[in-house]
Specification:
By secondary structure, the chain is an alpha+beta fold. Helix content is about 25%, strand content about 25%. The model has no long low-confidence stretch (mean pLDDT about 95). It binds flavin-adenine dinucleotide (FAD).
């Protein structure tokens, strides 16, 4: 029996067999058994409270760090709607942002308000919920450095207000329970001249264009670096991929980028299985050549296609 019959009435939308590929940057993978687009926070909270906890529920943000497997995602995938995408200044150089607000919109709003320190968000193509979960960051700043507090709904639909020190942050990692859905964040910056902030954002954008294949179907860095930023002689995932001959090496329509060896690319014909095979092939060769265990930064969800 379809899982839909076990779900409570909602004010938003429940869509059966909903394609997910176009909701991700990699543009691969099968459908969600059910996609839930909540009307607002109360709708989402009620859904979580009323849905039996043996129904799998997971959240997809802007899909810039997610690979959906070819067999699709059993259970419910939640995608936050425009009701969760507001960004507003709340005084003291702070912004309140809904979890579906794109990081870039947060950076732009901050610049307009003369709030500095959030420029790095312009280089991260996800939304704020994903940034809180992944501790997204670049060029020396991470989400945990600027987060004042986050609001999450747990699997029972309870509203929790949490501070960064409760989220167990590390490099591209948080210890937030897997079933929490962040719905809002308060973010702190410092005062500065909007023109100076704009200039720093433009600098980040042009640095990205030069060094990363940002117009490709990619999910950014595939593996975490083995050492966090700031480690002397930091070992880099891209170098290990390069040294083991995986830069540009192809399986089906998938390969690591020639421009940035840690970025997986779908040339338009790849399946999720092709992309995962390239990643797993590189991991195995790196392990046998160097003894180093790299770990996926990209989140992989769903099941493989039955053959
Ligand atoms: C071209 C490119 C460049 C990139 N550069 C960087 C970079 O410089 N630095 C960096 O850190 N990352 C980078 N990334 C990776 C990615 O943008 C970040 O990890 C981003 O924070 C993911 O956000 P998202 O909304 O797309 O999350 P998704 O990919 O949708 O989800 C990622 C994870 O977050 C969880 N999640 C999403 N929304 C919520 C929510 N509301 N509540 C709870 N959990 C949630 C998902 O369940 C999943 O586990 C890059 C990606 C691309 C494609």
């Amino acid at each position: 029996m379809s899982v839909t019959h076990r779900l409570p009435p909602v004010r938003g939308k429940l869509i059966e067999n909903a394609p997910l590929a176009d909701m991700t940057w990699l543009r691969v993978g099968g459908p969600a058994e059910v996609l839930f687009l909540p009307a607002d926070e109360a709708d989402l909270a009620n859904f979580l409270a009323e849905t039996s906890d043996d129904v799998p529920v997971q959240i997809l943000g802007a899909g810039s760090n997610t690979l959906v497997r070819d067999g699709g995602v059993p259970g419910v995938v939640v995608r936050l709607t425009a009701a969760f995408a507001k960004v507003e200044a709340v005084g003291e150089n702070r912004l309140k942002a809904g979890a579906a607000a794109l990081d870039k919109k947060v950076a732009q709003t901050a610049a307009k308000e003369g709030i500095a320190g959030l420029e790095f968000f312009t280089g991260v193509p996800g939304a704020i919920g994903g940034a809180i979960r992944m501790n997204a960051g670049c060029y020396g700043t991470e989400t945990c450095d600027v987060l004042v507090e986050a609001v999450a709904l747990d699997r029972m639909g309870r509203r929790l207000i949490v501070q960064p020190d409760e989220l167990g942050y590390a490099y591209r990692h948080s210890e937030a329970p897997d079933d929490w859905i962040f719905v809002e964040a308060t973010i702190q910056g410092t005062a500065d001249d909007p023109a100076a902030i704009d200039a720093r954002m433009a600098e980040i954008t042009s640095r990205r264009e030069e060094t990363q294949p940002i117009r490709e179907k990619t999910s950014g860095s595939t593996f975490k670096n083995p050492d966090p930023p700031g480690t002397p002689d930091q070992r880099k995932a891209w170098k290990l991929i390069d040294q083991t001959g995986w830069r540009g090496k192809r399986i089906g329509g998938a390969r690591f980028s020639e421009q940035h060896a840690n970025f997986l690319i779908n040339d338009g014909t790849a399946s999720a299985a092709d992309l995962e095979a390239v990643g797993e092939g590189a991991l195995a060769d790196i392990k046998s050549a160097t003894g180093i265990d790299l770990h996926w930064e990209v989140r992989r969800i769903g099941v493989e296609k039955a053959s």
